[in-house]
Amino acid sequence: MDAPTWPVEFADRYRERGYWRGETFGGVLRERAAAHPDRIALVDPAPRRRTRTYRELDEAADRLAAGFAERGIGRGDRVVVQLPNVAEFVEVVFALFRIGALPVFALPAHRDTEVQHICSLSEAVAYVVPDELAGFDHRALASRVRKNCPLLREVFVLGDPGEHTALADVPREPSGPLPGPEPHELAFLQLSGGTTGVPKLIPRTHDDYLYSLRGSNEICGVDGDTRYLVTLPAAHNFPMSSPGWLGALYAGGTVVLCPGPEPAVAFPLIDSEAVTLTGLVPPLALLWTEAAARGEYALTSLRLVLVGGAKYSEQAARRLEPALGCRLMQVFGMAEGLVNYTRLDDATETVVATQGLPISPDDEIRIVDDTDREVPEGEFGHLLTRGPYTIRGYWRAPEHNARAFTSDGFYRTGDIVRRAPTGHLVVEGRAKDQINRGGEKIAPEEVENIILAHPAVHDVSLVAVSDEFLGERTLAHVILREDAEPLRPADVKAFVRSRGVAAYKVPDLVRFVDAFPQTGVGKVSKKGLRSAAAAPEQH
Ligand code: OOB
């Protein structure tokens, strides 16, 4: 088996309670297209405004599915999808859902190192890319990755295909219904934020993910009149399902694809497309709050903004509602499953100071000490969780699973939380070795391994330093080899960049040291490094 799943007694209970309804994504789109064929499902505003009705989206998915199937892509095959916020992203994903092939969601920012790893680990047979994005040639990246991944048979390119296959040449007239996936089967693989040298893949089923959408829609009041703006990268779990573009489509609403998250791009779209709902990470929420105060855009259609992905300061949260003229909801979620929201009828104090309550009455929450014993009510501890949309294990990672899950199936989130008197969760910190750079997750070990490959570097440790705007930034402490030529911080950054990784993983700061502070057991003391980090930086 590729990943552990729910024991049968849990699966039975989740079905009995109506969480898992035996729907599939392909089936849901078919039903919505039959119920309201001419309603607008997608608005893709750039470079020239295009729309897709539910019928058009349904038919586009069918034709693409037939084309993929003709090229030998079938049930259970993995296909890495790395596309920006465009209509074709949604069409490709629904086409793959229909044939039961699994999209593996890469972020547009990912480069050779990440894509190579994702393709190898998932044993992907195909990879879907744009031709160029933000001045970067994804076709060339695909050519390089393909050399190292013998199983990768096809590269589909949105736009000019170069040596690969044009996505536009794939669609075929469907010759009949394709044998689709079962609701309990996997729908896709999502990337974990990661705490180890390499990210893990998160296997989500149709049943479990659709339940999280239904639950999110109910909490956020999403219905056929909702117009959801996809501000963050569509491949991330938050804008996908909290309640996200998939939630909006589930409810028969309209999804507006935003080409960039900055106010100058998003605000005119909110006004022209009458956007009602969106989701933001805290640094963006800050930017939007400041920009809205300038009053250049009416933003009157906006009803609700969700903020999550990293801790949102209470101070910043208080300013959002008056500035944007809409409701705020905090969301504390994870691609592994559990999602918490504050509620529309919560008092302002609760909305600005807590990270919410779980979606489901069957989300089991334990707050424990270092020995897995429950802490007294109201005190903080490690958050463990189990439930109808939280995975029981990562994809093909048995050793990691033994550490990341308890023997009775609780996921160790790595987050430190406490319960407010209202029962709402408050995120107090993090026990996992991960840096949260404004919602973008960085596993220090991954970046350290890259820097260690530099011939002049003897050792390195990457830590978080607090940052007013991003929450956290990265600082690399580097010990050079004794005989090495001196390096400048810029050389280390350039080296990381040259290895082909997402730009957000390039250290923000680099400091050269002679030794790391040691802990009692002789391990690098990251805590010591963090407290030493207040000293002025070198350039
Ligand atoms: C979301 O998902 P991931 O998988 O990128 O990251 C999950 C981690 C959590 O374990 C926690 O450490 C952190 O991100 N986090 C928050 C937070 N929301 C997420 N920390 C503090 N306050 C919050 N509100 O980030 C994600 C997935 C679905 C919905 C929203 C966010």
From TrEMBL:
Domain AMP-dependent synthetase/ligase: 29-395
SUPFAM superfamilies in the record: Acetyl-CoA synthetase-like
Residues spanning the signal sequence: none
Record InterPro entries: AMP-bd_C, AMP-bd_C_sf, AMP-binding_CS, AMP-dep_synth/lig_dom, ATP-dep_AMP-bd_enzyme, DHB_AMP_lig
Recorded superkingdom: Bacteria
Pathway: Siderophore biosynthesis
EC numbers: 2.7.7.58
AMP-binding enzyme C-terminal domain ranges (all copies): 446-523
Coiled coil: none
PROSITE patterns according to UniProt: AMP_BINDING (PS00455)
Keywords tagged on the record: Ligase, Nucleotidyltransferase, Transferase
Keyword Secreted: no
CDD domains on file: 23DHB-AMP_lg
GO molecular function, one term: nucleotidyltransferase activity
EC category name: transferase
NCBIfam families attached to this UniProt entry: DHB_AMP_lig
Protein name listed in UniProt: (2,3-dihydroxybenzoyl)adenylate synthase
Organism: Streptomyces olivaceus
